[in-house]
């Protein structure tokens, strides 16, 4: 067996083990036999060899935002690999496996450039990009996976390889949208876009307007340009200090907009939304791209428990608004958070270099979140059953839990090809 490298291997009961295993998701937890706290690609190679020699299955964690299958063998913890190099001339960024979007944004913002980042600044940029990646500029530029240029990967055998469209077209296709089962990615190069600021923000409506707002959101999204990406969250707000007074303890609709065109045009585009009902709160402004996710989404950034899934929809018929609110609104028997993201635009077009992202024809993504119990799971499935006729599949990035679902991440032909490439 090979010697341990200089890196830290942590075993249960040793100082630092619990901290290293912990992540953003607290509903599930990694149950590793050993954790490799890697600092660079050589450490990852050593860890892969260590696992192979001992017959341990390998899992990876950067931030724990996307933990679905807890580790049972060796967990490779990439949180120390946070290096980022921006090349403003080629408009690309090299991003290491453990970097979070907030780290990337701090670097790219200085050059007036934007990555295809999403709503959570604490999310890991690498896993997000390999799983698809629906961000603030999604309808204008497509999935983050569509703009990954180069990937560095350590294979199961412990080899470090660079994967590009030229070096290995099959593996390059599979990693971008297929994500798991090909090895451990140590870093990747992504394209950046000349978007220094956004016009964006959100408005909140109270429980009495949820159905009307949802119906209106569906109709409004049919009229907006690709420079505008939006979503609506229906959220039971906790009655606790820190939540703005008008929202505290109320089940609200939170409409979020990111528009990368002229701010005056942005103002014009959002004006019809003000007619949807009495607003509890509203905040729109021109925002530096680096601050946009935090300002627009205001998602909680402290670790918590969540369980949920998505349905990618060919349409969200406005006629379904009422039944959706019955199942998920303030009078629903089990408390859930729902979110509908507007897709389409560039997300529906094939990328310049093909990849494994499926269900591109989807126009909306419905996400349902709750606690992880059986009753909550059943409540979620009721919601998904309601939109079954329009359902194409589910999104890899937004699967929070490990229950089987009838909806598939990939279309059958993509799944077949991914399996062939994994086997190879
Ligand atoms: C608050 C929040 C906001 C989000 N917003 C968005 C959004 O706007 N758009 C979007 O598309 N997604 C979004 N997501 C989903 C997110 O992109 C996925 O959950 C993603 O997998 C998180 O990656 P991570 O590294 O942060 O999490 P981790 O839990 O550390 O990793 C998730 C999984 O990715 C794989 N993985 C991680 N690192 C590597 C690696 N180096 N090599 C190979 N595989 C690896 C592993 O299978 C791992 O279990 C959000 C999630 C949360 C919780």
Describe this structure in words.
- Helix content is 26%, strand content 24%.
- The strands form three sheets. It has an eight-stranded antiparallel sheet with strand order 13-10-12-11-15-16-14-17, sandwiched between helices.
- The chain has twelve helices and 17 strands.
- It has 424 residues and is of the alpha+beta class.
- α7 crosses α10 and α10 (321-328) packs antiparallel against α11.
- The model has no long low-confidence stretch (mean pLDDT 95).
- It has three domains: 8-77, 2-Layer Sandwich (Uridine Diphospho-n-acetylenolpyruvylglucosamine Reductase, domain 2), CATH 3.30.43; 84-194, Uridine Diphospho-n-acetylenolpyruvylglucosamine Reductase, domain 3 (2-Layer Sandwich); 197-398, 3-Layer(aba) Sandwich (Vanillyl-alcohol Oxidase, Chain A, domain 3), CATH 3.40.462.
- Bound molecules: flavin-adenine dinucleotide (FAD).
- Flavin-adenine dinucleotide binds next to β3, α4 and β9.
Largest beta sheet: strand ordering = 13-10-12-11-15-16-14-17
Question: Which class of the largest domain in CATH terms?
Answer: Alpha Beta
**Total discrete domains:** 3
Mean of residue pLDDT values = 95
Give helix % range: 25-40%
Oligomer, anyone? single chain
CATH T-level fold name of the largest domain:
Vanillyl-alcohol Oxidase, Chain A, domain 3
Q: H/E order of the elements? A: EHEHEEEEHHHEEHEEHEEHEHEHEEHEH
- Name the overall outline: globular
- Largest sheet report: 8 strands, antiparallel
Low-pLDDT parts are none
Describe the secondary structure blueprint for this structure:
Layout: E1 8-10, H1 17-21, E2 34-37, H2 41-54, E3 58-61, E4 74-77, E5 84-87, E6 92-96, H3 101-109, H4 125-130, H5 138-141, E7 148-154, E8 160-163, H6 169-178, E9 184-191, E10 197-205, H7 210-221, E11 228-236, E12 251-259, H8 263-270, E13 279-288, H9 289-297, E14 307-313, H10 321-328, E15 337-342, E16 364-370, H11 374-386, E17 391-393, H12 412-423
Parallel strand pairs: 2-4, 3-4
Antiparallel strand pairs: 1-2, 5-6, 6-9, 7-8, 7-9, 10-12, 10-13, 11-12, 11-15, 14-16, 14-17, 15-16
Flavin-adenine dinucleotide (FAD) binds at residues 23-24, 60-67, 78, 97, 118-120, 123-124, 126-128, 131-135, 179-180, 184-185, 299, 397-398.
């Amino acid at each position: 067996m090979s010697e341990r490298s200089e890196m830290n291997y942590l075993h249960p009961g040793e100082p630092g083990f619990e901290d290293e295993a912990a992540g953003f998701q607290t509903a599930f937890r990694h149950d590793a036999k050993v954790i490799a706290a890697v600092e660079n690609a050589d450490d990852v190679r050593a860890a892969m060899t260590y696992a192979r020699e001992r017959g341990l299955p390998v899992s990876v964690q950067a931030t724990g935002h996307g933990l679905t299958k807890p580790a049972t063998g060796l967990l490779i913890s990439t949180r120390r690999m946070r290096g980022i190099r921006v090349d403003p001339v080629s408009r690309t960024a090299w991003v290491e496996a453990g970097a979070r979007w907030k780290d990337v944004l701090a670097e790219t913002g200085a050059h007036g450039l934007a990555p295809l980042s999403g709503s959570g600044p604490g999310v890991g940029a690498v896993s997000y990009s390999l799983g698809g990646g629906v961000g603030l500029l999604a309808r204008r530029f497509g999935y983050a996976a569509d703009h990954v240029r180069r990937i560095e990967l350590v294979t199961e055998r412990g080899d470090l390889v660079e994967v590009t469209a030229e070096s290995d077209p099959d593996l390059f296709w599979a990693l971008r949208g297929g994500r798991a089962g090909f090895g451990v990615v140590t870093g990747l190069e992504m394209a950046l876009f000349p978007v220094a600021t956004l016009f964006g923000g959100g408005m909140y409506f109270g429980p009495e307007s949820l159905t009307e707002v949802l119906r209106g959101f569906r109709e409004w999204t049919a009229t907006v340009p690709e420079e505008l990406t939006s979503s609506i969250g229906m959220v039971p707000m906790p009655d606790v200090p820190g939540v703005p007074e008008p929202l505290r303890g109320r089940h609200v609709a939170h409409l979020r907009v990111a528009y990368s065109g002229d701010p005056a045009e942005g103002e014009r585009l959002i004006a019809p939304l003000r007619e949807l009902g009495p607003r509890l709160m509203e905040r729109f402004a021109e925002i530096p791209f680096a601050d946009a996710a935090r300002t627009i989404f205001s998602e909680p950034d402290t670790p918590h428990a969540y369980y949920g899934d998505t349905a990618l929809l060919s349409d969200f018929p406005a006629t379904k608004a009422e039944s959706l609110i019955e199942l998920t609104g303030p009078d629903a028997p089990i408390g859930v958070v729902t979110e509908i993201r507007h897709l389409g635009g560039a997300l529906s077009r094939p990328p310049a270099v093909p990849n494994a992202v499926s269900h591109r024809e989807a126009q909306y993504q419905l996400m349902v979140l709750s606690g992880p119990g059986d009753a909550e799971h059943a409540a979620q499935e009721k919601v998904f059953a309601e939109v079954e006729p329009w359902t194409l599949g589910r999104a890899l990035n937004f699967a929070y839990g490990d229950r089987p679902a009838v909806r598939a991440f990939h279309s059958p032909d993509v799944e077949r090809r991914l399996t062939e490439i994994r086997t190879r």
